[in-house]
Amino acid sequence: TQLLEQSPQFLSIQEGENLTVYCNSSSVFSSLQWYRQEPGEGPVLLVTVVTGGEVKKLKRLTFQFGDARKDSSLHITAAQPGDTGLYLCAGEKIGNEKLTFGTGTRLTIIP
Amino acid sequence: DAGITQSPRHKVTETGTPVTLRCHQTENHRYMYWYRQDPGHGLRLIHYSYGVKDTDKGEVSDGYSVSRSKTEDFLLTLESATSSQTSVYFCAISVDRARADTQYFGPGTRLTVL
Questions:
Q1: Which residues contact residue B63 at a Cβ distance below 8 angstroms, ignoring those fewer than 6 apart?
Q2: Facing residue for B40 by CB, picked from A44, A88, A103
Q3: B77 has which bridge partners?
């Protein structure tokens, strides 16, 4: 059983559209991170959220941590081809400092 | 970019042979990690190290061993490779395991076991 489920698994949209991807769990996390991974490379950290209900913005990307700290979402406004990649969420469970990664959302932005 | 290199970047081997993957960092970070990445599973932690000669198991450690004799090097060994160990292996480093610390990843090693 995967601790962190991401949806959708695959998403292909046109440039300029908006999108939201989700990261859900039945467990509570002390913090949650989002990474982006491009083909042939390792994941790169985008953001860390640590407080329930927290919203962080990174240019056109908006990250939200659920109030109960069990879920998170990533919203991209006016998607661009450079946003293409595999988006991974990773959570740190309370009392367990190891990161648990989600299954990933593979995003393709069509020019 | 964090100074992390992995070697080899690609390897094809046969079932039953030993394989060692190397991770080298120039950041002097205390913590080092080995993950494997497989479709549908995301990244799964194999082993990690919190200092020279200090290592611990992750969630998928069976069939793998690690060693860290210097701060900068973390080795992952498959004693007798099996086809189920075909995967992409990533090394990561972090300054600390304090809450929400950033992990920096290497470029990965693609291992194929025939």
A1: B78, B79, B80, B82, B85
A2: A103
A3: B20, B65
Residue B47: closest CA among B88, B90, B99: B90
User: A14-70, pLDDT tens digit by residue?
Assistant: 999 999 999 999 999 989 999 999 988 999 999 999 999 999 999 999 999 999 999
pLDDT, position B41: 82
List CB contacts (< 8 A) between B95 and chain A: none
Residues of A in contact with B49 (CB under 8 A): none
Residue pair A15/A107 in contact (Cβ under 8 Å)? The answer is no
Q: What is the rounded distance in angstroms from the CA atom of residue B32 to the CA atom of residue B24?
A: 10
Reduced to 3 states (helix: H, G, I; strand: E, B; else coil), residue B29 is coil
Among B103, B109, B110, pick the best mutation site for testing chain A contact (most A Cβ within 10 A): B103
Q: Answer for the pair B16, B66: CB distance below 8 angstroms, yes or no.
A: no
